[in-house]
Amino acid sequence: MNPSSNLYSKLLFSAFLLLATGADAFAPSKSFSRFPAGASSMTLLRAEEEMAASVAESVQAVAESAAPAVVEAVPDAPAVVAPVVQKAAELGDPLLEPVVDADTLALVLGQENYGLAIVLLGEGIWSLSQAPSIDQALKTLVPAAIAAAILGIVSGPMVTSGDVSQIGTGLFVADAVCIIMGLIYLARCLAPYSPSSKEIPALGILVALAGFFTFSENLVVDGYVTLPQLPQLPSIELPSIQLPF
After folding, report:
1. CA distance 44 to 163
2. Terminus of the chain with fewer CB atoms < 10 Å: N or C?
3. 243 Cβ partners below 8 Å, 6+ apart?
């Protein structure tokens, strides 16, 4: 068989193989099963984008390195490679504007939001059951019930809506609830007398802090809040010491 024809056949086979598998390699994935559950919302999305970008760079590097040899060996190689290049360009467009998986983002944020509401309401009910009274209800169950209602009625539908602007607003609302409940738990711990155990509001402070940092992390990672950058520190050259051994 003519070596040029053999190379031409291999080139055609490679082109069809790239066209057949390119869509799966470059298309944004809708499943995050390869990543552990409980990861941050945008961490999953960025991992998917980095993986797709790595595949795109590898394919482009191989194509650029092989192009001169192919053109020299096969006279009509440009006519064969042109459709492949065009298809790769079409598949590369999603990499420039990553598609956010709204369903996964809503699922993660919804679990965090509604889970916090259940914990706050459960703490209020338990603290009231230890010393049932109107005064104790005003200090424990009423604030917890209001916070749970805000998380369930206001911020919950926002963070699970899939709308980028509403997700940001819902995260801010949930963050505000965590701050207010943390101050209420701190006031209960500092009170000179408490009819119920103070260990529970102390744990409530930890829960409020965890919720605050979780929602704040999503605000920063998702781009709703931009942290200021520290100025670059001047570099200091340390003197080198030559040891005698």
Report:
1. 18
2. C
3. none
Range among 63-67, 76-80, 236-240 with highest mean pLDDT value: 236-240
pLDDT of residue 123 exceeding 70, the answer is: yes
CA separation for the pair 219, 222 (Å, rounded): 5
Q: Which residue bears the tokens 């704040």? A: 216
pLDDT for the residue numbered 235: 77
SS3 218: helix
What amino acid occupies position 8? Answer: Y
- Round the CA-based radius of gyration of the chain to a whole number and report it: 29
Contact 114, 156 (CB under 8 A): yes
DSSP state of 31: -
43 C-beta neighbours (distance < 10 Å), count: 14
**Integer Cα distance of 154 and 228 in angstroms:** 29
Q: Which of 59-63, 198-202, 210-214, 226-230 has the lowest mean pLDDT?
A: 59-63
From the list 46, 42, 49, 45, the residue with the least C-alpha distance to 167 is 42
